[in-house]
Design goal:
about 500 residues; alpha+beta; Thrombin, subunit H; Pdz3 Domain; seven-stranded antiparallel beta sheet; 11 helices; elongated
Length: about 500
């Protein structure tokens, strides 16, 4: 209910002697026009805040949204396996039932959504909607169906590109710019939820730049209802442009609770362009392992602020050929400042394969620019990290340092830890639970390969690095740790 103002508008009187009739009329005209303008602006503001209706938009975009049905041949069942959980008190009862089935292969169907992006029949959906399918059928809003073929897929972003052949041009929708989408804007989702056919839901953008699990994640979060079957469908802005592809929901029960995620169109368009051109993705590859720069790591290596991407390992590849080293902090890539590892990975992946880019690194307290020619990530997934020349001390010993009991690697320790013969460093045999090292996550079985960005093979090497850090006024020492073969930098406070 609208609250009435306690201040009443004053009555307007026209002095008969001081104001002529024509002047009075002009005054009233100005007043009326002013009120009309104010009301018009208020109505426009209200319209921008909350649409009166989504009907016109739904009518406009519906012909370009499709339902997807897939068919897959699966092995047939030969009994009631999986009817009850293992260990259930009813397990024996069901296992004694006669086998129901002859084991013959059978067909399994699945449902999803998608949308047409060109009049010649290109369709975008999620990879998980069509993955492993033998047959893909596209149902259009007008009621007709067409078979589809897979042009290409990308598991990293869960995007798939399909193609149908049609005698007549198909109605399609354009992509919008997801980078300018703001939290709080109205959006509309459309698709095939729970196999019920074409359905529309609306809500707002509740968050942006969400990362779920993938390397290239950039999700728009929305409270528009998204359920099973909506996967692959479009998320529209109020201009009828696709700003995201509905991909996942956060739910304890499998149903919509108002937390849905759509892969941002800025990611999707790059993937789709490559799938159209090559039938596969071709992402740039730098060839380094990296981690975020924390406050203590920044202090340990003399950085003014905790930003950039710290290189933990440089296997054979473009970065090694260009001279990048473990311990370098990548500050900028191809002229763009690097804030963290996620930003660097996305920037590298979106850069053209074979392009020569300038990489600014922080090394030994100074900055240095290196020129790196990018490789292709898809052909380099199996790259093996380079190893150093072995150097094993003749007289193994152990000692407590920084709250850790450490010992040089021996053949026996390498065998116990399943390390290669060429592995070198100090193995952590025990960690004091009250120490800074334990707080930082170091545990027995970790191998220290570097300290202060220099290799260590003997306990004396580690002690020398500690003393050098203290002499330089450092409060912490940067250690390169390997656990199960994976490298990680840890800054441990000097006690």
């Amino acid at each position: 209910m609208k609250k009435e103002s306690s201040v009443k508008p004053q009555a307007i009187t026209l002095p008969q002697k001081s104001l002529t009739a024509p002047a009075a009329l002009r005054g009233l005209t100005v007043l009326v026009l002013g009120v009309a303008l104010f009301l018009a602006q208020a109505m426009m503001a209200a319209a921008r805040g909350a649409p009166e209706s989504f009907a016109d938009l739904a009518e406009q975009i519906s012909p370009s949204v499709v339902n997807i049905t897939t068919s897959t041949v699966v092995a047939g069942r030969t009994g009631p396996q999986g009817v009850v959980p293992e260990g259930s008190p009813f397990e024996d009862f069901f296992n004694n039932l006669p086998n129901g089935g002859d084991g013959a292969p059978r067909r399994s169907s699945a449902l999803g959504s998608g949308f047409v992006i060109s009049e010649d029949g290109y369709i975008v959906t999620n990879n998980h909607v069509i993955e492993g399918a033998d047959e893909i059928m596209i149902e259009f809003f007008e009621g007709f169906e067409l078979p589809a073929e897979v042009i290409g897929t990308d598991k990293n972003t869960d995007i798939a590109l399909l193609k149908v052949e049609s005698d007549a041009p198909l109605k399609f929708v354009p992509f919008g710019d997801s980078d300018i989408v703001r939290v709080g804007e109205w959006v509309m989702a459309m698709g095939n939820p729970l196999g019920q056919g074409f359905s529309v839901s609306a809500g707002i953008v509740s968050a942006r730049n969400r990362a779920l699990s993938g390397t290239y994640d950039d999700y728009i979060q929305t409270d528009a209802a998204i359920n099973r079957g909506n996967s692959g469908g479009p998320l529209f802005n109020m201009n009828g442009e696709v700003i995201g592809v509905n991909t996942a929901i956060l739910s304890p029960n499998g149903g919509s609770i108002g937390i849905g995620f759509a892969m941002a169109s800025g990611v999707v368009t790059r993937v789709v362009d490559q799938l159209q051109e090559f039938g596969e993705t071709r992402r740039g590859w730098l060839g380094v392992r990296i981690q975020d720069v924390t406050e203590d790591v920044a202090e340990a290596i003399g950085l003014e602020k905790a930003s950039g991407a710290l290189i933990t390992d440089v296997p054979d590849g473009p970065a090694k050929e260009a001279g990048l080293l473990a311990g370098d902090v990548i500050m900028s890539f191809d002229g763009v400042e690097v804030g963290d590892t996620r930003g660097l990975v996305k920037k590298v992946g979106n850069t053209e394969v074979g392009k020569a880019v300038r990489v600014l690194v922080h090394r030994d307290g100074k900055t240095q620019t290196l020129l790196v020619t990018l490789g292709r990530r898809e052909t380099a997934e199996g790259a093996v990290p380079a190893v150093a020349t072995p150097a094993e001390p003749e007289a193994p010993a152990e000692k407590e340092v920084l709250g850790m009991t450490v010992s040089p690697l021996t053949d026996e320790l390498r065998e116990q830890l399943e390390l290669p013969e060429t592995a070198q460093g100090l193995v952590v045999k025990a960690v004091d639970e009250a120490s800074a090292a334990f707080e930082k996550g170091l545990r027995a079985g970790d191998v220290i390969t570097e300290a202060g960005q220099q290799k260590v093979a003997e306990i004396a090497d580690l002690e020398a690095r500690i003393q050098s850090a203290k002499d330089s006024g450092r409060k912490s020492l940067l250690l390169l740790i390997r656990r199960a073969g994976e490298p990680r930098f840890v800054a441990v406070a000097l006690q």
